[in-house]
Amino acid sequence: MNEARSVKLTAVSIFAVLLLTPLSSLQSADAPVPLKNAQSAALAKAPAKRWAEELFLPRFSAAKAAEFLDAGARADEGNKCLNCHASFAYLMARPALPIQAAKHAEVRSAVDEWVGYLEGLSLGVESDSRRRTEAVMAGAVLAGHDAVTTGKLQPVSRRALDLMWRVQLPDGGYDWLKPNNEPPSAIDDHFGATMAAIGAGVAPDGYASTPAARAGLEGLRGWLRTHPPQHMHQRGMLLLADHWVGGLMDEAARGQAVADLFAIQRPDGGWPMAALGDGSWKRKDQTPQDLTTSDGYGTGFCVYVLRLAGRVPADDLRIEKALTWLLEHQRESGYWYARSPKGNDRLSTYVGTAYAVLALKQCGQIP
Fold this sequence. Notes:
The protein has helices spanning 3-9, 62-72, 84-93, 102-119, 129-149, 155-166, 190-202, 211-226, 232-245, 251-263, 296-308, 317-328, 345-362, and strands at 32-34, 43-45. By secondary structure, the protein is mainly α. It has a two-stranded antiparallel ribbon with strand order 1-2. Strand 1 (32-34) and strand 2 form a beta hairpin. The protein is globular, with a radius of gyration of 20 Å. The N and C termini lie close together (11 Å).
């Protein structure tokens, strides 16, 4: 298989990416635990998992990455919401790992079913922002999942994409859910606009040429022209969107974005997640951002964007250095640690692991 086809087949896009709201599936390390002593009514908390302190694996393990992603995958929170932060990151990255698991089909099925639930709500621009956000994420991620699994746009994915246009605002953008202002994906409306563009572009079977998609993309291009990216993460997302649908960046802007991403690469070959915010993200505890320590999210995101949308070859020395960092920094439990730019390391670590997997796939390290 030639490199161009390999890049296309592995491009689930940065679905990653995703809404960083509380990750229920990984709460066991932090959840209150009742004392066995029945005489005591007090509750004790298990010590919080020290994500940054777990030892590194001696070599990259696709099986351990799959194990970690499977353990953290979630589909829905009862009837409350679709679990965007886990389910969508999972469907983004899991097809890249050549290890079969029932969880994969389970999560896909649950998201398919949620599309039916959203359809029953008669969604529109006045609907609850949570449901509108779910509509965009479901359409984009299911389309990307189809592209790398069956290569055919499934009927449920087409319906989800059509929902995406029903919740698009008259100005072409999206009123995005921002539950905790958790960067990079739940803090502003730019993420929703680029996600919608990526979803329409990555969808198989020429979906982007359908009347609904053409009209929606015209609106998105207009909105993105009048709302230029404000930091490097937004520029990376815009690079991905432009890769799939075109008309969002000219050659000079694309080249400058690539150069600027490389400019913040650390000497060890990686990138810190917080550096992608260009100083605009603030931590909940008011402590300074860590702009010097490379992590899984920053490195995975940048390598994925640079390889796919920046068209930087895998044998570029800067990419090779980043690849070495990824191969050497997987933890024993299968994850790549990422310090959250807001405060919840569980979330940034889970999504960062998804990006690390995609970056390794793009560099040919995963069959």
